[in-house]
Design a protein that fits this description.
This protein is α+β, with helices and mostly antiparallel strands and 86 residues long. The protein folds into two domains: 55 residues, no CATH class; 31 residues. The chain contains one helix and four strands; from the N terminus they run ββββα. A four-stranded antiparallel β-sheet has the order 1-2-3-4, with no helix packed on it. The chain is elongated and about 60 Å long. The chain starts with 5 loop residues before the first strand and ends with a helix. The relative contact order is 0.15. Bound molecules: zinc ion (ZN). The site of zinc ion has 9 residues, from loops.
């Protein structure tokens, strides 16, 4: 199974937020290489005031595909159970 390849940087390093201009921006890092993704993929620390959060697009579509897969599987599983119950 494919593992989650990106995560928010766990170090306390902060960058300038592209939205509010404050140095409270946490970047995404590649888990395998430890490198930052492009410097606009990240999350602003100022949840209340700014709430800027930009996510990797391809990563987002993978999550969406996975969510669809899981929901379809749940439907099929429920269907199979209902047949078995009869
Ligand atoms: Zn911000």
């Amino acid at each position: 199974m494919e593992t989650f390849k990106y995560t928010l940087d766990r170090s306390s390093k902060k960058f300038v937020c592209p939205n509010c201009g404050k140095k409270r921006f946490v970047l995404y890092v590649d888990i395998n290489t430890g490198n930052y993704l492009t410097d606009d993929f990240g999350k602003c620390d100022r949840e209340q005031n700014c709430n800027y959060h930009k996510f990797n697009k391809s990563l987002g579509s993978i999550c969406k595909a996975l969510a669809i897969f899981i929901s379809v599987r749940t439907v099929v599983f429920t269907f199979a159970l209902s047949i078995l119950a009869i």
